[in-house]
Amino acid sequence: MQHPENDEKYSGLTVNSGVAQPPSVNPYLHKRPKRKPLPTASELVEGILKGDVTVLSRAVTLVESLNHDHQAVAQEVIEKCLPHSGNSRRIGITGVPGAGKSTSIDVFGLHVLRDGGKLAVLAIDPSSERTKGSILGDKTRMEKLAVHPDAFIRPSPSAGSLGGVARKTRETIVLCEAAGYDNIFVETVGVGQSETAVHSMVDFFLLIQLAGTGDELQGIKRGIMEMADGIVINKADGDNIDRARLAQAQFRSALHLFPPTASGWSPEVLTYSGYFELGIPEVWDMIDRYFDFVKSNGYFERRRREQSRYWMYETINEQLRSHFYNNPEVSRRLTAEEADVLANRRSSFVAAKDMLDFYFNKMNLNQND
Predict the structure, then answer these.
(1) Is 145 exposed, middle or buried, given 0-12, 13-18 or 19+ CB atoms closer than 10 A?
(2) Secondary structure (3-state) at 205
(3) Which class would CATH give 38-84?
(4) Is the pLDDT of residue 22 over 50?
(5) Among 21, 145, 208, 316, which one is least packed by beta carbons within 10 Å?
(6) 8 Å CB contact between 174 and 142
């Protein structure tokens, strides 16, 4: 291969070393900022009880974290906040996708705040099953509440938990109540399994429906309607008013076929328009009547106690599941069992039984040691 640069006629030429590398535009670019130290549980509780939104947000982040150290601090904070909680009205809001849940929460929230007090909105954002990521865009659809000084909006990723309900929403409610938020809205992803979990952590369950989309009762699970304490038909405005009233009549007829509720309350069906803010006071009057009714007959306190018991057992189930799958010996054995199942060498049920027997035998040996 010819290399002309080595020819003798070029011997007098020299090659410059090149331009020196200029310094970085930002001299601090390579200096990583020091992480703020993790606040103590006492510092977090003190800030929460003062109503400091920044401290509350950080505490909620610790509650949602999977880090073991964060979880230890979060549980201590929850325990210390528990005596200061329970003084709010917890309202679950659900509906089919596109029913206007976020827009309705925006106008419902402003209506509540006009009477004073503080509002926390816990919006569950669906996580992607492929990337596990979430847009967390509920704040963009709650334009007025997002800038209100007495409103706290916390979108949380569902992270693949049951039906899209964030696993730590229950604990977040406790923290918000301790911070002085006397109204808690919990917005679900949409109609599905998530409603069962949300129903077990709220006092009033509101179902938002639409009219003019075909058979109004089609596609809505009977179980969801049975859980609802109130059904409201959104977008009852303009040319859609007659369709909304027809849907209202259909839902009222359907509710008569259901058995009586445990609270003794007869669910009501109302129409409103979240976009034009029509019928909002009537919806909230219905909710006020419900709380007066259940507090007078003792159902309110009884339901709160049942919910606490439910979440105790749910937490036990969750911890057992986590302990099982995070055991390194179990993880190694699971790989082999899974290979046998995929190769049809043994059934799924036999493999599962063997894994559980192995796990419980291991636990017994550890206790004997």
Answers:
(1) buried
(2) strand
(3) mainly alpha
(4) yes
(5) 21
(6) no
Distance CA 288, CA 158 (A): 30
Is the pLDDT at 153 greater than 50? The verdict is yes
Q: Quick one: DSSP state of residue 260?
A: P
* Structure confidence by residue, pLDDT tens digits, 110-148: 999 998 999 999 987 654 444 444 444 555 678 889 899
Q: Tell how many helices (H) and how many strands (E) occur in the chain.
A: 14, 7
Of residues 36 and 88, more confidence is placed in 88
> For the chain, what are the domain ranges?
38-84, 85-297, 327-368
pTM for this entry: 0.82
Q: Which two tokens stand for residue 151?
A: 């409103």
* Class of the CATH domain delimited by 85-297: alpha beta
Residue 61 in contact with residue 166, Cβ under 8 Å? no
Kindly state the tokens that stand for 258.
Answer: 């259901």
Task: Collect all residues with Cβ–Cβ distance below 8 Å to 79 and sequence separation of at least 6.
Answer: none
